[in-house]
Amino acid sequence: MDGTLVESESIYLQLWVEVLAKHGFQVEVDALAKMKGRDAQTNNQLIAEIIQNKAPVQALRKEREQLVNEAIDTGRIHLKKGMQELLTFLRTDGYNLGVATMSSKKRAEHILKSNGVRDYFAELVTVETVKHPKPAPDIYLNALKSPLFNEKTALALEDTTLGCQAALAAGIPVILISAAKKKLAQTFQCQDGFGVIDFLRQS
Predict the structure, then answer these.
(1) Is 97 exposed, middle or buried (0-12, 13-18, 19+ CB in 10 A)?
(2) Exposed, middle or buried by CB within 10 Å (0-12, 13-18, 19+), for 73?
(3) Is 4 within 8 Å of 159 (Cβ atoms)?
(4) Are residues 134 and 87 in the same domain?
(5) What distances in angstroms separate CA 120 from CA 86, 90, 98, one per listed residue?
(6) Is residue 203 one of the residues assigned to a domain?
(7) Contacts of range 172-179, beta carbons closer than 8 Å, 24 or more positions apart
(8) Helix, strand, coil tally for the chain in percent (to 5)
């Protein structure tokens, strides 16, 4: 969902930078790049390492969550270019659509409803359902438990290496949507069931 369906990953990182700066920690966005596509628990550990445990990470996260909610409510976190058209096309043609995300159910529902696309998705699988986060295949294996999907006909859209690894490990072909396609594609260039596109629409 994040970075694939909606433009959110860069905003999440920037909001972390703002919260950390407020508490006296000067951190560059690039230093947080490893957080993309990861679950909150893992990212909390990364933040703790960066600030050397000099502040309560959970309190910092609570502040950032408030800013994220504001970003969603004000439309700052919006659908990626071309996504509305793609969703409409797929639904019109009778495809079953689902979201498998390492975000919480509350966050996912908030984003989907705020962008007016919640009704497009028959299934919503979130971080609460998994024991092992991406790159483990848990999130996709849980999605495949739905009678609407199976690995023979499913297709995943991803924007990170972690997500691609998770989908492929679950036996699901994956398309990587990324502006950094050349760099990320090198990781998967010898694997079947993998394709890359820049973004969904040129203009």
Answers:
(1) middle
(2) exposed
(3) yes
(4) yes
(5) 11, 9, 8
(6) no
(7) 172/140, 172/144, 177/4, 177/80
(8) 50, 10, 40
Is residue 123 left, alpha or beta, with left meaning phi > 0 and alpha meaning psi from -120 to 50?
beta
Q: Does 24 map to a domain?
A: yes
Under 8 Å between Cβ of 118 and 91: no
Domain boundary among 18, 53, 73: 73
Single-letter amino acid, residue 166 = A
* Predicted structure pTM score: 0.86
pLDDT (tens digit, 0 to 9) for every residue of the chain, 203 residues total?
998 999 999 999 999 999 999 999 999 999 999 998 889 999 999 999 999 999 999 999 999 999 999 999 999 999 998 899 999 999 999 999 999 999 999 999 999 999 999 999 999 999 999 999 999 999 999 999 999 999 899 999 998 889 999 999 999 999 887 655 455 454 444 355 555 444 444 33
8 Å CB contact between 13 and 35 = yes
